[in-house]
Amino acid sequence: MFTSCTDPSTLDGLNWLACYLTTGKHVLFYKSFFVVLTLLAVTAPLALGVGFLGAVVSRSKHAPLRWIGTLYTSMVRGVPDIVFFLFVPLAMDQGFEWVRHKTLCRDWSEPIRQGNDFLVCSAAKLPLGSAPQSVHEIYGFALAVLAFAVVFGAFAANVLAGAMKAVPRAQMETAEAYGMSPRQSFWRIMVPQMWIYALPGLSNLWMVLIKATPLLFLLGVEDIVYWARELGGAKTSHFTYPHPDWRLWYFLGLLVFYLGFTKLSEIVLARITTRLSRGQATMAGEQMRKDT
Amino acid sequence: MKKLLLSATVLAFTAGASFADTVRMGTEGAYPPYNFIDDDGEVAGFEREVGDKLCEIAGLTCEWVTNEWDTIIPNLLSGNYDTIIAGMSITDERDEVIDFTQDYYPPTASAYAALTDGVDLMGGVIAAQTSTIQAGHVATTGATLVEFATLDDTIAAVQNGEVDAVFADKDALAPFVAEQGFTFLGDDVPLGDGIGMGLRESDAELKTKFNAAIDAMKADGSLNALLIKYFGEETATY
């Protein structure tokens, strides 16, 4: 990056450090912070959507729908996350490729499973074998987002279903008395009011989600933990910047990042709580009414 | 509506399909000097140079990807990349699952390294990387085997005093002996049948191409030149 960095072996002290911290590898490390933040930004709304759907389905009047909802939430909540993170992307990837194989390569006669190999025609590969590495990375990231959404959606579904039940019955009764249809009373009365009941559970989930991002590494996405390990490991003279085992410092950096991010989340969540409590038939809402 | 959606997805998936196939080279990126991520964040090392040269000879377009050592074979089988070029020794066990090209790195020794002398190699606690021939070997001695995901972790385990010694490819340990206070202990142990590229068993065509390319590199001496460049004058050559 700097012109003085062309021959690191002649540098010492801060100059060396400045060059060291701006190597291509470190830039990739810094970029991986954005990968993690992007994952959070994309996954959270998606998981919330999945959760909302799950909650609605598990409260459905139709028994089969209700069973699907219950099966989904109890299955995902009962299986260890790590198993799901390994299973879901692999299963989805092979599933997509299988479907594409069946539609794109109808004249393919060989079996898809040959011994240990999972073989589809090259047109069905996802992403295509000829695609640049960035496409492979985005695809891997998308699979990771889906896996996170499936897992956290199940927890969110449970939280939201509980929140829907917590909305005071009197509110719904009033809506019915005003002649609202079930659909209208659901969207106009229940949904706007349920968030304050869901918030403690959802904020917990958000915190767990922040801490779960290092699982990305399991899925082959090069996240901050991967790079911290890779950069921190002892480096011999095969590298331009040899150094002993520095993982402690890199992990300390991650610790500060995660704690800082948690603190920030807490501040934001506290504000949302205040906001949502306004005018609610809860103790916090009642307190606010008295104060003003 | 459903049909429309489905056909739209299929269309989206097929759009931009061109079949100038790239060979995706899978490596670990954590086993210097065989393969590692250099300071620019690129795959580098002996295998990077050999692989690039092989692709050039065979007239293939190659792209490098990294994968954890632990899952490197399953990901080859499910088609995430097309070759494994990651210092993988040819063994009968692996040969049952995947195919190997001929060796591009001759059979060499594995060795024990530690920070102090007088470690009981046959009865002590020895670190090795998971699913390597070295881990397999330690398990057959009387020593207690502790497995780690990467070479880095095995080195760190010795430095922390968690284990008594590390057992790995001698050439991979050599830099740590030269620069970080490790010493070799005991006799060298010859293991494996050399290092080859791993391929899917169904990929016979690719295997032929790479075998021919390795032949060519062995014949013109360029492989020996690379071996000496990365492993020193002492190393075994063809």
TrEMBL record, chain A:
Could you tell me which residue ranges the ABC transmembrane type-1 domain spans? 29-269
Q: Which residues cross the membrane?
A: 33-57, 69-92, 138-161, 205-228, 248-269
Q: Which family does it belong to?
A: Belongs to the binding-protein-dependent transport system permease family.
The UniProt entry lists the main location of this chain as: membrane
Q: Which GO terms describe its biological process?
A: transmembrane transport
Give the membrane topology: Multi-pass membrane protein
Query: Any keyword Transmembrane?
Result: yes
* Name this polypeptide is given: Arginine ABC transporter permease protein ArtQ
Q: Which GO terms describe its cellular component?
A: plasma membrane
Which SUPFAM superfamilies does the entry mention? Answer: MetI-like (SSF161098)
Compartments annotated for it: namely: Cell membrane
The record's InterPro entries line, in alphabetical order, gives: ABC_transp_permease_HisMQ, MetI-like, MetI-like_sf
> Which species expresses this protein natively?
Pacificibacter marinus
Which UniProt keyword terms apply here? Membrane, Transmembrane, Transmembrane helix, Transport
UniProtKB/TrEMBL annotation, chain B:
The signal peptide stretch is: 1-20
Q: What are the transmembrane regions?
A: none
Annotated ranges, domain Solute-binding protein family 3/N-terminal: 22-234
Q: Does the keyword Methyltransferase apply?
A: no
Identify the keywords attached in UniProt to this record, alphabetized: Signal
**Which Gene3D superfamilies does this entry report, sorted A to Z?**
Periplasmic binding protein-like II
State whether keyword Signal applies.
Answer: yes
The record's listing under InterPro entries reads:
Solute-binding_3/MltF_N
List the Pfam families hit by this protein, alphabetically: SBP_bac_3
> What is the recorded name of this protein?
Putative ABC transporter arginine-binding protein 2
Gene designation per UniProt: artI
